Amino acid sequence: MSEHTMRAVTVGEFGGPEVLTVGRVARPVPLPTEVLVRVHAAGINPVDWKTRAGQGMAGLQTLPLILGWDVSGVVEEVGFGVTTLAPGDEVYAMPWFPRPAGGYAEYVTAPSRQFARKPASIGHAEAAALPLAVLTAWQALVDTAGIRAGQRVLVHAAAGGVGHLAVQIARHLGAEVVATAQEPRHAWLKELGADRTVDYTRQRFEDEAGEVDVVIDLMGGTDATDVRSVAVTRPGGLIVSVPGGVSPALAEAAGAAGVRTSPVLVEPDGAALTTIAGLVDAGAVRVEVERVFALEDVAEAHRRGETNRTRGKLVLDLAP
User: Which residues, other chains included, contact 55 with Cβ-Cβ below 8 Å and sequence gap of 6+?
Assistant: First the structure.
């Protein structure tokens, strides 16, 4: 095969998983300040299948499109001016988001400072599962909420990709953590640091959570979770709405109760990923990978993700 092409998953039209096509495309070339990374694994996130279906970040994309924002791999080439990385470095990143990054491919290019050295204690599959989810949790808890020791944090959808990492980060910061998830996930979430778990299919979290300082809402308007969360948030507390931002209904209910709200849309942050890599290597944070799929099985991976019943993350294997 030509060194100027690479394997990749392309989307020629928005639609179901069947529009995902594995083929060969032109290999990218790094510009000054960029690095070329040989991708060993690519993480799969809800924004991927939503975008594939014409939702999510579809409005910011141009077809044909290579999906994927989570990557882990090895630097193969550096552009002029790059001083922080060198060929052979193992790195991980969430480059370019929400612009297209082309993560479902054998190579990606992006600014060097959007990458960080991969945690040394884990493999590429685990590292590829981290960036988008862990940066979402980090930017919600650390940068937006400013979590302090002794606060109480409620994490909705705690067994998912962002949720299980948010539980661990909040616990690391010294918060008491209440986590909502179906009962079979409760023992695992307590291992990760949840102090209290609530089965949202059998219990009303309003009756079980008690008063909290911060809500990390990963469900949005589903079952009116966002608006219902106002009832358990102390006056002056904060509800961070991750999917879709702050709805008008939430803004109205929160304003009447003296509760603050904030949206979060994750941004690339190589410096934060460096800090997080240290937490992973210290054993303070670990990522759960439910399954690793071959690149050719990408449609099956999307179908699995769309069930919304994944424990942790799904990953594509692109190892040489």
Answer: none
Reported as a single tens digit per residue, the pLDDT across 121-139 is 999 999 999 999 999 999 9
Q: What is the pTM of this model?
A: 0.97
Q: What are phi and psi of 97, to 5 degrees?
A: -50, 135
Q: Enter the tokens of residue 76.
A: 């193969």
Helix (H) or strand (E) run with residue 168 in it: helix 161-172
Q: What is the dihedral of CA 94, 49, 192, 317, to 10 degrees?
A: -70
Paired tokens of 228: 């219902």
The Cα 109–Cα 101 span in angstroms is 8
CB 35 within 8 A of CB 51: no
Q: What is the pLDDT of residues 154-169, one digit of tens each?
A: 999 999 999 999 999 9
- Residue 296, CA atoms < 13 Å, CB-side half-sphere: 0
* pLDDT beneath 50, residues of the chain: none
The full set of domains in the chain, from first to last, is 5-130+287-317 (3.90.180.10), 133-263 (3.40.50.720)
